[in-house]
Amino acid sequence: MRLLFTVYTPKQIHSIKPATNNLSIIEPWRCGGSSMEFPPNLLPDEASPEWLNKGDNAWQLMAATVVGLQSIPGLVILYGSLVKKTWAINSAFMAFYAFAAVLLCWVAWGFRMSFGEKMLFFLGKPGVALDQEFLLGKAFLGLFPTATMVFFQGVFAAITLILIAGALLGRMNILAWMLFVPLWVTFSYTVTAFSIWSPEGWLAKLGVIDFSGGYVIHLSAGVAGYTAAYWVGPRCEKERERFPSNNMIVGLAGAGLLWMGWSGFNGGGPFVVSTVASLAVLNTHVCAAASIMVWVLLDTLYFGKPTVFGAIQGMITGLVCITPAAGVVQGWAAILMGLISGSVPWYTMMILHNKVPFLKQIDDPMAVFHTHAVAGALGGILTGLFAVPKLCRLFYMVPDWEKYIGLAYGLQNGATGAGLRQMGIQIGAIVFVIIFNFVTTSLICLLVGVLVPLRLHTDALQMGDKAMHGEEAFALNNADNAMFENLNHNNVYDTQDFSFFRDPKPLTQLQMV
């Protein structure tokens, strides 16, 4: 079958009257001897304006959805599974609550503070993002509605707070967390997002390269999480020494959602279905795979055996490291970044952390500092080294190639000054994000601490979920509860011994089955 299409001007399109008796809906309009016919779904109308690219809009909505799935259920499952069973509900709930709270703050004032009209050189004017006239208009970037952009950026803001929660599991007062979330997204996240991602942001104008959130999300979350962990204080000593996962297999399922969801995380960065988006997705997974291999190898060489927890950490460091560079580096550079992100954070987490007293003092259950702050900063620096000028032009759509050029290519092409400038901007942005998040997070923690205690009292720490929520993640049913008392710990096999009191007689074979 041969399909013919006619090229129309917008004015001619709106004057078209559809036919009713054949597949052709319009009379052909000839231009230069060519004849083309538009299918009905390509004709603009009130719901599909001329500027709307349906393919881009569909991909952006899908990318936003899979990023949301990274948080719920991805990180909800991961946190709820990797902690001790008495903290499973609280850990999962912290993530679940943060997602909901951030989205409400985002549409109420956060989006416009991050991407709206410039108020200060680092911040936009607060305003709601709920009016249909605003939401149905064209987004500030991309060929899709503002509503799509609001949702896409909203799930990024939400996952940032959830990542911060990873450093606070097992001891933070849930009321303090409920206050911390809206304050942090308002006074910290919006400033970083506007500075780096908004076209009017001061770091964006300087030319910082942050493809999809290595600075705005991961470096910010790592620094903020570690700072908050300092102010909240550590878990009880017993749980710092031994905090076993309650279900590592389910934890792997959560990690898998996080990994695959990164296709939308980085693939949605260009705001368009393009070759750059495809490259970003491939580079993302290649880097993560390389990082996992290195982390597992180092675990095996140093500890004598590979661990699932280590593999998950290696996955995260690889994904974080490639995020600022995903669509602007070559595939070989992505692999090299994976090798570095699987080794440097491993060293800081496994070796350096135990040698530096200050690092050892701060309790970070999910190692957010190493997997996000260290890996995010590492990714920003490596982006400044490996960014390809051509790929940067395709991503940023700018003719001035000297504004976005990795140092390696600057040295190769005789543009050393431009390469050094780019590296300086990358490092300068890292310093800004670290200092700003340290200061704002500290101030927010001090403010929240005046209103409610940041850390649970000792008795509540022993009870965990029961004290915080009055619920248990792995509760036995009432009949089984009545059968057991005097729970004893078997130190030899690290198991629990139960004493029967309801029926002192031995169980029959049928009862055992």
From TrEMBL:
Protein name: Ammonium transporter
Domain Ammonium transporter AmtB-like: 58-473
Cellular component aspect of the GO annotation: plasma membrane
Species per Swiss-Prot/TrEMBL record: Vigna mungo (Black gram)
Lineage: Eukaryota, Viridiplantae, Streptophyta, Embryophyta, Tracheophyta
Keywords: Ammonia transport, Cell membrane, Glycoprotein, Membrane, Transmembrane, Transmembrane helix, Transport
Tagged with keyword Disulfide bond: no
Domain of life: Eukaryota
InterPro entries: Ammonium/urea_transptr (IPR029020), Ammonium_transpt (IPR001905), Na/solute_symporter_CS (IPR018212), NH4_transpt_AmtB-like_dom (IPR024041), RhesusRHD (IPR002229)
NCBIfam families reported in the protein's UniProt record: amt
